[in-house]
Design goal:
Rossmann fold, alpha/beta, 5-stranded parallel sheet, 5 helices
Length: 145
């Protein structure tokens, strides 16, 4: 890893992108998003380390890893854990690497339980409601940090 590495961490059920509720999440798969990010990262002189897990502890471990690897930033789509995980918030506030929250949909216009984001309480910025392109926007924000 280098200081130009951006971790892109994806939470539960995002492995199903591409066919999971396309009216909400679009038709792009996580592999499609990875391709978009790799292309843009090359242009920005960055490297991407993209991961997905359905397990909260993996996301926390990876946030810690990003810190010790001295990553440039973390793009975090914590998915459902966004609205429930104090442990992920604690991990974010425990590390020095800036975290940018990413959401494909706009949680603020969805079910009321999605309106609270614990991730946002520790993140330096949030990108939401832009579909898969939001990851690229978040990467561009990370490049400017």
């Amino acid at each position: 890893m280098s200081a130009n590495t951006v971790y892109v961490l994806n939470g539960p059920n995002l492995n199903l992108l591409g066919f999971r509720e396309p009216t909400i999440y679009g038709n792009d798969s996580l592999d499609d998003i990875a391709g978009m990010l790799e292309d843009r990262a090359r242009q920005l002189g960055l490297e991407i380390d993209m991961r997905q897990s359905n397990h909260e502890g993996h996301l926390i471990d990876w946030l810690h890893e990003a810190h010790f690897a001295k990553a440039k930033a973390v793009l975090l789509n914590a998915a459902g854990y966004t609205h429930t995980s104090i442990a992920i918030l604690d991990a974010i506030t425990s590390i020095s690497v800036p975290v940018i929250e990413v959401h494909i949909s706009d949680p603020t216009v969805r079910e009321p339980f999605r309106h609270q984001s614990f991730v946002a309480l520790g993140a330096v910025d949030t990108v939401q409601g832009m579909g898969a392109r939001g990851y690229v926007v978040a990467l561009e924000k990370a490049a400017a940090l």
